[in-house]
Amino acid sequence: MQRSENPGPGIPMTGRIAILELKKTVGEPDLAARRSAEEALAALGPDVVPEIASALREAPQTMRWYLARAIARMGIPAFEPVLEAIRSSDDPEVRRYLTASIAAMGEATIPLLVRLLVDDDVAVRGAAALALCRIGGPAMPALKEASEGDDPLLRNSAGLVLFRMGEEGILTLLSEDEE
Description:
11 helices, disordered N terminus, elongated
């Protein structure tokens, strides 16, 4: 006998239940239902990030996309739990979706990501670099500043990220500040 995945009225939704509800709706043609399930998961907040990271490991690609979007909707409060999930995951696909969720949090993450370019954990450094590249143009001034700073490792890392951003990043790296 299968238990219902929906907890019913008056029973609080947990991360596991919200993930199961999202899984159930992903295959449905009703976009509003999928978005509603994603929003319900995001509303649970950063405490469910470890459960989402665990679900990312087994989820099909479409489901992974909705899980990452749910994390991104949580905003900056989910930043640290996502970093911990990146640190603890040995699955590059899981780390990729977690990184995408950080990048989708937007410009507010830029100062945090720039500092992570010199993190002790190589997976975190890579995630920070990829997220900054994905954020793109808005990250360039902070990367330019870091590329001119006192820390040689941060200077090098910021320069490499700007280089990876292509022509605009290279031009930013090579430009002289007009003061």
